[in-house]
Amino acid sequence: MSFLKLCPSLERLFVTIDPKSYCVEKITSCSTEVAGRNTKLKHLKLVKLDGFVNQEDEILLAQHLGEIVTTEPLILASAVGISLRKLINDPFYQQKQKRKSNYIFVEVKDMNQLCLKHVHMVL
Q1: For 104-116, what is the mean pLDDT?
Q2: For burial by CB atoms within 10 Å, which of 6, 33, 41, 95 has the most?
Q3: How many other β-carbons are positioned within 10 Å of the β-carbon of residue 109?
Q4: pLDDT value at position 74?
Q5: CA distances from 97 to 26, 55, 62, 63 (A)
Q6: Residue 6 within any structural domain of the chain
Q7: Please, are residues 48 and 11 in contact by the beta-carbon 8 Å criterion?
Q8: pLDDT digit string (tens) for 30-85?
Q9: Does 92 reside within a domain?
């Protein structure tokens, strides 16, 4: 994560993993120290995750990103055989649930809901 802090003006981040060669032990922590503690991504609008083997890893990466951004970017995920999904904060999450996170992915049914509103759209 620390290398992202070297790009504070980053607006879009695309993370693509080859699922056939993706075999990593669970990482329980991420370093955010290298580039300085006060450096945050202030302009990140979109994160696209592609090729992850499981949803838990996608959510874990999103949580680590949350530690270094000042905005709430749109986080999308896709994988072979799975439709496009959007990460949201689950309003019904309770600490006692078996899930480790309050984030869930929901299927994107209407691609128009992904477009950011532009000024000219309301004219």
Answers
A1: 74
A2: 41
A3: 10
A4: 92
A5: 21, 17, 20, 18
A6: no
A7: no
A8: 554 544 556 788 999 999 999 888 888 899 999 889 889 998 899 999 877 778 89
A9: yes
Strand 12-16 relative to strand 46-50, pairing? parallel
Domain range spanning residue 81? 59-122
At which residue do the structure tokens 């709430």 appear?
72
The count of structural domains within the chain is 1
pLDDT at residue 86, as a whole number = 92
DSSP states along the chain: -GGGGG-TT--EEEEE--TTS------------TT-TT--BSS--EEEEES-S-HHHHHHHHHHHHTTBSS--EEEEEETTEEEEEEEE-TT--TTSS-S-SEEEEE---GGGGSPP-GGGG-
Structural domain includes residue 20: no
Domain-embedded: residue 80: yes
